[in-house]
Predict the 3D structure of the following.
Amino acid sequence: MKSHLNYSSATRILLDVSYTISSSRNSGIERVVRNIRNHWMQMATELHLKIVCVVSYAGQFYEVTPELEARFARQAAVNRNVLETLPRPYRWIASLLCGFIRFEFLRRWLLPEPGHLGVFKIMAELCERSIRRGIRKQPRIADFTEQDLIVMPDAYWTEMQAFDAAQHARRKGATIVTVVYDLIPITHPETVGALRSRDFLEYFRQACQTADTLVAISKTVRDEVRAAIPRLLSDNNRSNTNSLCNDVRAFRLGADVPNTESLLASHNQVDPKLRELFDSEPNNKPYLMVSMFDPRKNHRYVLDAFDSLWDQGVPVRLCMVGRKGNLCTDVLSRIANHPQLNNRLFVFHQANDADLVFCYQNAAAAMMPSIAEGFGLPIVESLHFGCDTMASDIPVHREVGDASCQYFDIHDPQSLASMITQHHKQKTSSRPTSEKGSSSNHHITTWRESAEELLALVMDVYREHRTKNPDVSRAA
């Protein structure tokens, strides 16, 4: 922490975790919120700050108590893998029934995969609603003043009621800072569907109308947000642009950097099937793609590139790691019926942190072919572990990967195919080649550094805002 910065201005910092507290996922947004939260709590003790984690309900903020945290954690475990929470007799009977009646839909309903709920979905939703109704029993955050700073880093397109709570606090004088991850549902609506795109636009309007400052997770997203505010929010005079937030800044996300001891320990937790895949042909390691199966992640492009290579007889192998998302049925069907599946094409939908570290450390190279991103954490992680990294040539990838990556044309699968061909020849040639270590010189921002940067930024916002707006209360 930079010692010359003053963090003592705000009496109270409220960190909203309304969505992440109940999420069973470990994807981008959840990882950001959890890491910021963990490091801010450590820093609160070190810097004598009062940082309170809150959730929103019915237009109010409530404190996250250990009891509430435990209830949401139990529900998240159900959402993560419902079968593990069910009695063994049920799993035995359901497996027997699905083995006797061989209908795929029956297996999906009675024996849902991790991350899916099947027939238990309604029960899980009712349980979560009950927990959220119980939030009213928690200590309510009241008596907001101009000394309060509220930081909102969560997924508010799923929890838009948080904006009602923020507006209530803002009218009392609190300063509001909201994190924006990307504008992909607006800029690339075909990747999410029309309904989600409309919902996301409404979220963006509310964020701009509620926040004193918006903080993007990259300079690329910051510039996109600055351009979008007057262009999108003033359409049909639906919003008065004079009342919208016009202060947009950026900070840099961190990455997990395990120490040597944790790396050694994690190697014992690697999926045996993954270990066998990467060790079976030591001179022909698989190429790696780590990403949720989602249209904007562009799995189709990678499959096109590798199909071209396999048709030419190039013996490269491809390993795709990522959970199943929405709108990806066509890609999953293509993989399920692919002639190279489990021969040169391998897919893992459930990978833990130890699996990912092992993959990065042992892959021939990692690929990031996204059509659009807010940041691109897999690039950072790949480079940290010294893995040769190839990425689609889009602005945010250039920002994150700079000169440490190779970039391919997102519109031409042959661009990646040619890059893979050249890379494979170098790896399998007898002459010395560039080692992975060249990538590991890339500077990695740790989550601690990222949390420090964000805290310094929001405190600067608070001080600047209080200087410009000395009145205790403000109109919404």
Observations:
- The chain has two domains: 12-64+138-253+448-468, 260-443.
- Residues 260-443 form a domain with the Rossmann fold fold (CATH 3.40.50.2000).
- The chain is about 45% helix and 10% strand.
- The mean pLDDT is 87.
